[in-house]
Amino acid sequence: MKRFTKIIVVIVLLLFSMTGCDYSNISSTSSPSETITPTPAVAKIGLVLAIGGLGDDSYNDVVYEGAQRAVRNLNVTVDTLEPETLNDYITMVGQLAEDGTYDLIIVASPDGEQAVRKYAAAYPDQKFVIVDTTINMPNVKCIIKSYSEMTFLGGALAGLITKANNGSDTQKTDSDIIGIIVGTENKAAKEAIAGFEAGARLKNSNAEVIVVSVGSWTDVLKCKQAANELYNRGAEVIMCFAGEASNGVIEAAVEKNKYVIGISANQNALAPDNIIASCTEVIDIRVYSEIEKIIGDTWTSGVDEGGLREGAVDLVYDNSKVNVSKEIKNAVEDLKHQVVTDQFKVPTDTSKIDLWLSSVQ
After folding, report:
1. Is 320 inside any structural domain?
2. Would you say the pTM of this structure is higher than 0.85?
């Protein structure tokens, strides 16, 4: 990429570039205004998605939207690769790095850590971005989201709803069982489980949070079977944290007329009578921002962490038709305020939840 091209683009980008790491005032569903951009493209981006690929109505689709927004507005090209196995990361990241023409390679999953470490060392002039893991190398940027904060409000919502239903006219079961189904129990999933369980037990001391790992981020049928089993055991609400496979939880919730909490994208419209809310992340904006910085010649390595305070994660009710009382929404919002103002930290380890509960109750 030529220096004079970068300078011209920087002048344009200064009109709408983001500053710092505060994502709270930017909507992940609204694209920057379309502009006529020069050709040829000013940057070439390689994107390696998480296992499961496009069409998951969740994480990968959100990442891809951020990249495509950059295509539309920043005059870049993006080559997208969709791994099916862990071994694919070595092959795909290697392919992009060895090509030598990419201004930035984005790896959207911590499953690509080994590959990024290998090729960042082999190609020190190649810039990399990786999501949800920390690599301390001069040509690697790490985008970290707080998964425990991402699911904490969803857990609190589940706890409040099950508690409210007990003994009420709208009660479907007498159970305090709340489920969370994950693809595999990797680091991100473990943190998500801890945040969800902490929120649920904080707001419903009788809550029994059952965790099921289906061993796949793509097996929709297996996820649906796990959800059916949990619903049959009396679960009132299930959080899905299984990528593309999460669609199986949604299908089960619709068929059994039960509740589910969405993840990553705002999934509420997929089943508005059953999805109470979605725990969202603005990974599309963060991907867009890294590409923007490459064009503006302001890209740096290091770690960009984001949670509720930064607006990097949130809980949204938009497009859901489930009637959640104002009292419950206010209680959840109060918890969000307490996290944002550092009144307490959300636990990231399930083994520490009991001690944490004793300190905040």
Report:
1. no
2. no
